[in-house]
Amino acid sequence: MTAFPEGTILGYPRIGRRRELKKAVEAFWAGRIDEQELERTSAELRATTRERLASLGLGRTDSAIPESFSYYDQVHDAAVTVGAIPTRFEGLRAEDGTIGLAAYFTIARGEGERAPLEMTKWFDSNYHYLVPEIGPETVFSLSSDRLVREVAEGIAAGFVTRPVIVGPVTLLALAKASDGAPEGFDPLTRLDDLLPVYVELIARLKAAGAEWVQIDEPALVSESLPASVAQLSDAAARALAVLGGATDRPSILVAAPYAELGEVFPVLAAAPVEAIAVDLVRGGLPTAAAGLEGKSLVGGVIDGHNIWRGDLAAAYDKLEALRGLGAAAVAASTSTSLLHVPHDVSEEAKLDARLVSWLAFADQKVEQVVALARGLGQGREAIAAELAEASAALEDRLSAPGVRDGLVRQRELVDADFSRITYEERETAQEALGLPALPLTTIGSFPQTGDIRRARAQFGRGELPQEDYEDFLRREIDSVVSLQEELGLDVLVHGEPERNDMVQYFAENLDGFAVTENGWVQSYGSRATRPSILWGDVSRPAPITVDWSAYAQSLTVKHMKGMLTGPVTILAWSFVRDDQPLGETANQVALALREEIADLEAAGIEIIQVDEPALRELLPLKQADQPAYLDWSVASFRLSTGGAAAGTQIHTHLCYSEFGVVIDAIRALDADVTSIEAARSRMEVVTDIAEVGFDHGIGPGVYDIHSPRVPSTSEIEALLRRAVAEIPTRQLWVNPDCGLKTRGYAETTESLRNIVEATRRVREDINVTA
Ligand code: GLN
Ligand code: ZN
After folding, report:
1. Do residues 49 and 174 share a domain?
2. How would DSSP label each residue in 364-427?
3. For 558, which of 147, 373, 499, 651 is 20 to 30 Å away at the CA?
4. pLDDT above 90: percentage of residues in the chain
5. How confident is the model over 270-293, as pLDDT tens digits?
6. Ligand 1 pocket: which of 500, 611, 656, 705 to mutate (most atoms <8 Å of CB)?
């Protein structure tokens, strides 16, 4: 057996430093390049990554470099590799039963009447994975050798890399029952049928030259999955007994990041595998357990979620403590894959140099791991300089101006009133809005066309004067408003053309944030976001959205919805300071939004949406931590909206359908109307809503905006009828799942037209007077 390397990372960003993968994949989808060219580009990207990681200090041939590329999503990769695809896509297999690249994308994105896989958030991150659909009918068989070829590709270039694959327990625990499965079917019951395919896969990886394989099993740390910890841990024991017992295999690293393993740790310690990676950023030190003697323990001490350079000495201390557990060896690593952070802070020429000295993006984190590994090998003294430098940067950060701005702190919570009058009274006051039954609205953004992006880029480069840019945006708003009037929507939006991103826009207009140029992080598939850096105390120097909303309102007699991003989402989609509790930071943002709402009301806006799509995402994986989170997150939302008048209708929007999981929090938000995603899961969520007796306004989405597919009128009508059957009409709103910014105008207009027509048909039947 080859020893585990002293330093490694659990995964590296795959999109490319300049989003090369996004560009190539989208060109392939658009038919501008063929499959060979796409494969060439991705092979180049992988080659660049291996070389880069080696030049940063990871070993070329000791399996330190993870082979963690993905064209779209690592869960989808695993599902396709083992052939776990829905029946409706079975026809896409090649004659020999394998699933090629075009089929892989089609299953991810849907085609015609065949709906794509659902998408949901990966643990407590802002990354979305595709939810596998697995039933009793699923036939597992090795259906893609992509990972095997990538290992071989590395070998040919002189590398021995470590292939990474989502493990069998996590794959099944994250899957949903297929359409054909009997009521209550649990995909985890298919574990024994699935394992032989993993055994075959790891044998193939070995034959290709892999000495280690990394099996990612983050499901084992979660208490937020349908399966209990006991079920997961039992499944892990069985799975690892089979994989570890295979005779023809590479050494196995089991990685279980994102939180503490707790009682599952001894199960892994006892399993016949060679290494275990634990998250020591989110979790504490595990306790010694039987079976560690022959194993390597990989300490995830460098934060894979955040971009702070952090306390390197404390990280090193954790590794020393880990040594006390009696394992054969200890290695340094990142806590999670570096998928969640941008490539390289040295690409940020425009960021303040002092801020830069506090930061570590993926490449800097690799260097930190390499330093820690050197410390493990040669002793603490060998890295004294690195440790001292990191400590100095940390001290500088904590004492820098703006980090603790006296003025903001005095204003905090002074006169904050968190609650509005009762919902009944508000409902009565809001009758004056004169809305029809099943009011039609959208979630806020309209397509961000090439023209909009070009104008913004020109303005950013100083090539387009501010006046001209604002003129351009007003013309854009004119056309979005007239399109909505023509379609017959009831509550209009201005379309958000001035925003490149719903969080970054606010970050740019609030004090306490910095914005990067190239800090892209994959969100899902070919999509990436550029999280802002919330480094200091937050305040609002001037109104942000008021002029745009007021202008849009001036164009129509219908209601124009003001559009804000809520405090939890602003935190969740930024890299947030880690030197104070998140709740404190959230309240600073909330106060700024509260001022914005007052200004919107003064400008005549009567409906205001405060988006909180990330409320679920930040929910801690451990049940014990959830109540405190829900307390501060709900409080910050109520602090931001609590000043609104009774007649002002407050909307919120959440981007997922797991309504049941956070229902108490949604109720506590006390928004007058909540819109949620529901189309991909075909309205399953209305059953949850009906069961818990939610009585405020609710808009379950009828159009899956993550797919280019246009839903037909009859399909939408069926969804609406399902909603009407289960939820009182007076509560129901009609809207798409989410904002339309990623869609084109052709499909958006057609889909909205179908939504309006479907609503007209359903309104006729429900026969209620407006
Ligand atoms: N208002 C935002 C938009 O329409 C909401 C997006 C989101 O929920 N992610 O784009
Ligand atoms: Zn959304």
Report:
1. yes
2. HHHHHHHHHHHHHHH-GGGGHHHHHHHHHHHHHHHHSTTTT-HHHHHHTTSS-----S-HHHHH
3. 499
4. 90
5. 999 999 999 999 999 999 999 999
6. 611
Cβ atoms 513, 507 nearer than 8 A = yes
Q: Whose CA is nearest to atom 6 of ligand 1?
A: 739
Our count of domains for the chain comes to: 2
Q: Determine the atom of ligand 1 nearest the C-alpha atom of 499.
A: 10
Both 121 and 175 in one domain: the answer is: yes
State whether 394 and 441 are in the same domain.
Answer: no
If you average pLDDT over residues 365-385, what whole number do you get?
A: 98
Residues lining ligand 1, Cβ inside 6 A: 443-445, 496, 502, 563, 611, 613, 653, 655, 738-739, 741
Beta bridge partners of 533: 514, 575
Crossing angle, helix 101-109 and helix 20-29, to 10 degrees? 90
Residues 204 and 265 grouped into a single domain: yes
**Looking at the domain assignment, is residue 253 inside a domain?**
yes
Distance from the alpha carbon of residue 655 to the mean position of ligand 2, in angstroms = 4
351-to-135, 247, 363, 515 alpha-carbon distances in Å = 50, 53, 17, 8
Nearest 5°: CA angle at 16, between 360 and 374?
Answer: 40
Q: What is the CATH number of the domain that holds 299?
A: 3.20.20.210
**Closest-approaching ligand to the CA atom of 569:** 1
* CA 445 – ligand 1 centroid, Å: 6
pLDDT in tens, 528-571: 999 999 999 999 999 999 999 999 999 999 999 999 999 999 99
Domain that holds residue 383: 20-399
Predicted confidence at residue 756, as pLDDT, reads 98
- Range 362-393 burial, b when 16+ CB lie within 10 A, else e: bbbbbbbbbbbbbbbeeeeeebeebbeebeeb
Q: Is the pLDDT at 770 greater than 50, yes or no? A: no
pTM of the model: 0.90
Substitution candidate for ligand 1 out of 653, 675, 677, 737 with most atoms within 8 A of CB = 653
Please check whether residue 213 lies inside any domain of the structure.
yes
Distance 256 CA to ligand 1 centre (A): 32
Quick one: which ligand is closest to 445's CA? 1
The pLDDT of residue 663? 86
Query: How far away, in angstroms, is 107 Cα from ligand 2 center?
Result: 22
501 and 364, same domain (yes or no): no
pLDDT at position 659, please?
A: 77
Q: Which is more confidently placed, 384 or 617? A: 384
What is the rounded distance in angstroms from the CA atom of residue 106 to the CA atom of residue 93?
A: 11
